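In the previous lecture we treated proteins in isolation. Real proteins rarely work alone, and many bind small molecules. This record shows how such a complex is specified: first the sequence, then the SMILES for zinc ion.
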Amino acid sequence: MRNNTESPSIPSNPETIPINWPAAITLWATLAASIVLVPAYAIWNDYSTSAWITFISLALLNGIAITAGYHRLWAHRAYQANVVVRFVLLVFGTMAVQNSVFVWASGHRRHHRHVDSHDEDPYAATRGFWFSHMGWMVRCYPSGKDEFSNIPDLLLDRMLQFQHQYYALLALSINFGLPFLIGFLTNDLWGVVILGGLFRLVWCHHTTFFINSLAHIWGKRPYTDTNTARDNPILAFFTYGECYHNYHHLFQYDYRNGIRWYQFDPTKWLICGLSFLGLTHDLKRIPEFKIEKARLDMQFKVAQNKLACSKLSKLETVTALKNRLAHEYDVFTAALQQWAKVKEEQIKATKHAFHNYDLLKNYKNQLAHIERQLKSQRKRVDQILEQLPDLLA
Ligand SMILES: [Zn+2]
Ligand SMILES: [Zn+2]
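The predicted 3D structure, ligand included, written as C-alpha cells:
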C-alpha cells in the first residue's frame, strides 16, 4: 500500500506522520459502515439463513487462509503445500484485505525478528494497544515501510508475484463479486452483501488484528518472558488457534501454535489433515525435549524470582528450596544433554546400521527412559513451586 523510504526514527508526535489514506479509508469506512448498516438491516429486514451461511463460510475461509496461508505457509515456511492448496489459500487470503503476501510476510518476519522494538517491529505492542491493533496501518510510520529483502524465497513465486502486482484489483473484484453473486443467486442480495460481505470483512480484520494487539498484552508466558507475546486460549478460539502466541514467538517454525491435543488450533488440524491426503508435506515440529526445556527454564526462572522476594523470617526453608531447585536444574540439564547425545547416535545408527534392529531398539528404550526421567523431574519442580505461595504470604 505504501513505499516509504525514510530512515527509522522515533516520532515526537505521531500526528506529524502522514496518513496512509488507502489503508485508513478501507479500515475506517468498512468499520463505520458495518456499525451502522448491520443492525439497521437487522431491524428492518432481518437476515436470511443464506446471509448467515455466507458470513460463517467466508469468515472461516478468509481467517484460515490468513493463518494457514499468509502466516504459517508463506511467512514462516512451517510446511509445504501443493499448488491447489496454495491457490485456494491465496484467493481467500486476498479476500481478507490484509495486503499482498509479500507485504504481509515481510512485515511479519520483521515483527518476529525485532519483536517489541519501537523502530523495527512494524506493530510493536510496546507502543500501546491501539498502535499494535490498527494504528500502525493508518499512518506511514517508518517502522512499517515496505521492504522485501527478508522474503527472497517468496519473491521467486510466480503466483505470489501476480497477486502482488494486481492486488488492489483482485481484492476489490472478489470482495464485491462473490457476495453480490451469492446474494443474487440466493435472492437476498443486500442481506448477503451486508453480512457476508461487509461484516465478514470487518470481523476478519479485527480478529486477526487481535493477534498483534491483545495476544501481546493478555495471557500467560509459559515459554519465554523475553518478549510481550502471550498464550491465551480464549483468544485462540477467535483466531483459529493463533493465540498460543508465546509458544509461537519462541518456536515460529512449528506448524502448530497450540501444541497439545486439547488446545484449540483448527489451523493445525487443517494442515495436518491435508497431509494425510498428500496435499501438504514437510510439516515442521519442534522436538518435544526442546519445548520441555523452554517450559522448565521458565519455571526455574519464576521460582528463583519468587524465592528472591520471599520473607526473611522463612530464610531456612527458602535456602533449602533454593538448593533443591539448583540441584533439579543440574539433573535436568544433564538428562537433556544425554537425551541429545543418544538422539544423535540414534540418527547415525538409523542411517548406517538400519538393519540392526537390536541396536535401534536399544536407542529407542534409552530415549524413552530419559524422557520418563524428565517427566518425573517436572513433577518435582511443580511440587517446589506449590510451596512458594506459603513463603510469600
Ligand atoms: Zn506477535
Ligand atoms: Zn508468526
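Summary for your notes: The longest strand covers residues 80-81. The pocket of zinc ion (ligand 2) is lined by residues 71, 75-76, 108, 112, 248, 252 (CB under 6 Å).
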